[in-house]
Amino acid sequence: MNDKELHNLLIELSSYKECEWIEFKQDNSNPYEIGEYLSALSNSACYEKKDYGYLLYGIENETNRLVGTTFYLSQTKIGNQELENWLVTQLSPRVDLNIFDFNYENKHFVIFRVQAAPNQPVRFRAEYYIRIGSYKKKLDDHPERERSIWQKNQKIFETELAMYGVSEYQLLSLLDYPAFFELFNIPLPDNRQGIIERFLQEKIIEKQGQTYVIKNIGALLFAKNINDFDTLSRKSIRLIFYNGKDRIKTTKEITGTKGYAIGFKGLIQYLEDNLPTNEVIEKAFRRQVPLFPILALRELIANAIIHQDFSVKGTSPMIEVFTNRIEITNPGKPLIDTLRFIDHNPQSRNELLARMMRRLNICEERGSGIDKVVFECEKYQLPAPDFIVGDNYTRVILYGHKTLRQMDKQDKIRSCYLHSCLKYVSGEFMTNQSLRERFGIDEKNYAIASRIIAETIQKGLVKEYDSENKSRKYAKYVPFWY
Q1: What is the pLDDT of residue 42?
Q2: Residue 180: HSE in the Cβ half-sphere, 13 Å Cα cutoff
């Protein structure tokens, strides 16, 4: 921008009151605070359907007077790094950031112009921010705005192109068409044109002139070798086995090469064959049973595939098998609170992928997958699964068997809360008796279940269904969100 354009921009922005996408400052030039404001303004600009957010130095907040600033961009550094370069590296994902340092009517001004969040919320370092009115807040405290930002910016990754200029012969060599027709349970056509016509109907490819393009959804689900597609090669599922309870010694590491759909059955079978087992004696016979419920693993792995954030580069769904637990991690933060996984209608970033996988019977109908996971954990009297959200990932931990004595306080509280959720979505209520059955507690030890319920109430995760009921024996309990 030239001086005239900057002056016009200054006059225009100073005519506004502070709002979600405009912030006025005079002299406070703390680099970390600037970074937080840029995250908040970028996310709010997206929410308010603006192209940019603005942080202006030199405008009096209450009066909008152009008073100038003592903040000079060239004089502000982080170590030996210039402020602008440092800020760009601390904002993720990368957004366009312009800083204009200029004079107007013998006064100094600085304008930060940050691009509206492009395809996901923008964070500064490890935290996401948002503007509520003229106040800077953490985005995690306003999940409805976070969901809106995802929905406004979400590109349909599944429909983007994985490969173009593909001949008919290449199509049939890149995509596993026999497995495709087997999964859909339809007869395999006896000619090439019939196969390609079905691909076109399912919209996993498109015709462009005399050649074809393969969409991401086609390659992700049906590729013979996903490494044939440069942009998707880092999206293969990784499976790692460790010798022990930590990551010190790896015994086996496998990176999948098949598309998710055609490789899913083999992945689950491989897991089942290689999981740690327990020996169970039934009458005169002994048999080995997996330490972890296979149905629960199946649902969690399908969820990790469906809900991953494809905009996170260089990472993919990962399954880590320890001797006492399994951790399943997918890129991206969930769009709903982890405490509401069991009752909330799921919101998927990749609805086309999820819909296709439901048609192929790889995952459950909407909303029932996590219910099944919790049910399986209760059936085998395992600790409830733990849902963890990191900076840019979601992790589910499925624990092996623990006696009630071996479970720590958090295991018991988490299991109690999810038990109340499962009961509620089944049209029932948690009671002392139902929790005793869930943990395998003898009736004479009902006080143990009462203590677990009391601790879960204290954490604010469950509450009494009828607070007027004075009988503890027949008390009913519901999740906090009831």
Answers
A1: 95
A2: 28
